[in-house]
Amino acid sequence: MGVMGNGRLAKRPLWLFLVSFLAIIGLVLLTSPLQNVAWAICFFGLLAVAALSLGWLVLGLKKKVSPRARSSVVIISLALVLGLMFKSASAFSWLDIGVLVLICIGLLFYARRR
């Protein structure tokens, strides 16, 4: 049975996404990451949780979810968050983007072959 086998497990990613998304909105409205770097760390942590739960929610639309699909969601979500972290730090050149994309493609290829 997949991750989303019964109704209770299907609701978990939805609630996790909604709570983390609302926490991101509250964090953005009430804090300033320029004054304290800890808020930026909290933001990217919440963003990773939101991306993972959204990926699992989209996977939940399928009847059967394979472990390969779940590992692909983790790899893609973390790559997006890492890309946004580098972009927000203005530390992204074309070479860095290429390296990140190649690493993600390699991890996805490895996850599919396992």
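The above is record 1. Record 2 follows with the same two-line structure.
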Amino acid sequence: MAQETVRLAEYAAALRYQDLPAPVVQQAKECIIDTVAAGICGSALPWSRIVIDYAERTGPGGKCHILGRGGPAVQAPAAALANGALAHAFELDSLTRPGAGAHPGATVLPSAARPGTPTRPAAFMRRAPPARSAGRSPPAICCGSMRRR
């Protein structure tokens, strides 16, 4: 089979949110909730302080927040690094089947989040497709909404 990557990319680019089966959308929402909860839990662990301090020191002045923290806003790359590490801090993140070696929530969600999207997590959950659509950037939770209030 040739061109598997091209075929997969074409499928993903043509995919529309309304074409997704309801169980797929519901599972995606549950994975997002799971990842955010794992990150908030991870933010309270002593070893997480290292990556939080690093993100705050190297990425000041941004619009993004670190999960579970009321600290200063940081640049998007620093927030993605910290939030990914926090989501994986205590092995609670999504899809941790023994032997699978995969933790997609801890890598996909924090890197997809972008600042400047005026969206609360609840609104995101109602409307955001979990795949890139042709001609549009990938949907994301606004980093600014990913903080404890």
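The first strand starts at residue 60 and ends at 64.
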